[in-house]
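Cross-check.
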Amino acid sequence: MGYLTKLKASNCDFQGIDILKAYVNLEQLDISQCKGMTGFQIENYSKLVIFRASNIRSSNNNFLKQKANLIELDLSENAGIDLSIIQHMNKITKLTLCDNELKNLSELSIQSNLHNLDLSNNFGIDISLICNLVQLKYLNLSDCNIQNLTALKNLQFLEELDISTNFGIDLSGLQFLTTLVKLESQCNDHQNIQALQYLVNLKELDLGNNESIDITPLQYLTKLTNLQLQYCYLQEVSSLSPLCNLEYLDLSYNFITHIKPLKQMTQLTELWLNVNKIIDLTVIQQLPYFDQFVLSEQEESTPQEITLANKMHAIYSTISSLREIRTKCVNIKSVSNSVKQKTAYILKQQIKEHLQFTNIVTSLFQLLRNNEALQ
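Predicted model, tokenized:
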């Protein structure tokens, strides 16, 4: 067993760390959700390069200080983590710090080798110093209450970006990120997406759950192969006609009546049009994979689908309201910091529970869709 190089021991009820001391050759170690790791010292594992320790709730971060060889590190869900412990880890290429209540990223600004960074669920984080992480290829800033993206304009190697659930975010600044091939921007209440027209290398784009969005700029994104526009209150899709490379297109839960612009999309292998008001489906019958498309109309939708659709809209509305309340609370000067922090924490937990429920509802949708495809 001393020659073991990879160990996943997540969610284990360890009493101390004696059980791990024998595995000195470990290269990968996962102790996520292990709450009994008191006294753990990572320097005992000189060969360790990948370390995952999310939600261990350790108040002592010193166990990482002497570990400079790590290339991947996950410290998610450890609120109050001291980022100074990673200042000397200059070999790290992948870092996950989601849901840590982070505000300042000054300790990260010197991590010039970072390629993959996840900062999701850090409400109100200051991303101004991300401009120094010029080697980034993947960046997750979802659910951070970010209002603008100008700090990202120097990330000339960025390929994947997730900015979902940042309500009212201004997309100005995205036009500089022409290397992007994948963008996720769900649930942001977008009104203006003009900046997207410059992202001509995009292959995957998710704009789901953005009510009343104007999709005209999408006509320039001719390299798209995957596009998601569900729950966008769309009435027409003429802007999509130039997107002949699409392989996956989700237009479900909209108010679309005419789909003639889709008839040239011969590469489509998956198309979702359920819960719309489409008048004539014959215009796409010649597409090669027509028999595999999900095309059911709203009046033909199952009661389960309609119930889930209504539930999803209600959840997103609640999340939006909770975020607005949290933002206002944090900005009230007459309220003490302790009250602000306590209120913000309670609201954060409520938002987190709602977001978890949306994942459940989304999974149920997928099960229903798979069932439709099989029938």
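Residues 302-374 form one domain. Residues 51 and 73 are 5 Å apart (CA to CA). Passed to J.P. for a second look.
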